[in-house]
Design brief:
There is one protein chain. With 264 residues, the chain is mostly helical. The chain has one domain. It has 7 helices and 3 strands, in the order ααααααβαββ. Strands 2-1-3 form a 3-stranded antiparallel beta sheet. α1 runs antiparallel to α3 and α3 packs antiparallel against α4 (108-124).
Length: 264
């Protein structure tokens, strides 16, 4: 029998602290993703240096070879991206589970299974775009590669040297930063919500989830928060209802627990 460690009010306090601290964690995760993916930028600079002449200029006859070598850069972007976002998902699940499992009586033996379920769900789920996480990473990598090709081709044709190309290459990555940030937030929030739900499923004291719309008050979130799906009140959902895990990209809504009345 799970030991009840909190009253409903105390559990609500746990969630208030959890969501505040999670916001700080996700900000760090977004910065981490941007830095990790940005590291590949140095590979492009090194690639250009290999083909440049003594004056730092890449001749036109080298262009096709450089553009072909960008395939390797794109491959490294994909690999780095997949590892980066998988790390974020794992970190989020472990963080959320560590904060919640003890206060709702989830056994230590069940914790590992919770984190495995979260990783599998987030990496394999199909979003509204019909894509899984690896597809989104591949799409992002391809977009960066295409922009790099355009910049490098234009610079070589104009006879610009490496020193003139580097700021333009940096700008390509900077322009993609918002996509990296959004993906890091979306996948992390999904992992956070999934961990909340999977832990609840392992608990004997949690009966329902209470969904709260976020600060952005999007139509999707407001509708979910106002919907009385089971006649238990607005925004009340089962622990297995996945529609509240990620209503839309870059979501700011959140969920809390409703304890089983038998334990209050």
């Amino acid at each position: 029998m799970a030991e009840i460690l909190t009253t409903q009010a105390e559990l609500d306090e746990v969630f208030a602290r959890l969501e505040k601290d999670y916001g700080a964690l996700n900000n760090r995760q977004q910065a981490y993703a941007i830095d990790e993916i940005g590291r590949v930028r140095s590979e492009v600079t090194e690639l250009l240096a290999e083909y440049a002449d003594g004056e730092g200029v890449v001749q036109r006859q080298q262009m096709n070879r450089i553009l072909s070598d960008l395939d390797v850069v794109e491959s490294n972007l994909r690999q780095t991206g997949e590892l980066t976002f998988e790390h974020i998902v794992k970190e989020t699940s472990e963080y959320t589970t560590a904060r919640l499992a003890p206060v709702i009586g989830v056994s230590a033996s069940a914790v590992m299974g919770v984190n495995q379920h979260v990783l599998q769900y987030v990496t394999r789920r199909f979003g509204e775009d019909g894509l899984v996480l690896s597809d989104r990473v591949w799409g992002l990598s391809g977009e960066i590669r295409d922009e790099l090709s355009t910049v490098i081709r234009s610079s070589i044709i104009k006879g610009e040297g490496i020193n003139a190309m580097i700021p333009k290459i940096r700008k390509v990555y900077d322009n993609e930063t918002w996509k990296i940030r959004r993906l890091a937030r979306t996948e992390s929030v999904t992992a956070h919500r999934a961990a909340i739900s999977y832990n609840a499923q392992e608990s004997e004291v949690v009966e329902w989830l209470q969904f709260h719309h976020g600060v952005k008050r999007t139509d999707a979130c407001v509708n979910l928060a106002n919907h009385d799906k089971y006649g238990k009140g607005k925004g009340v959902y089962k622990t297995t209802d996945t529609e509240i895990w990620m209503p839309h990209p870059n979501c700011t809504s959140y969920a809390t627990y409703i304890l089983d009345e038998r334990w209050l």
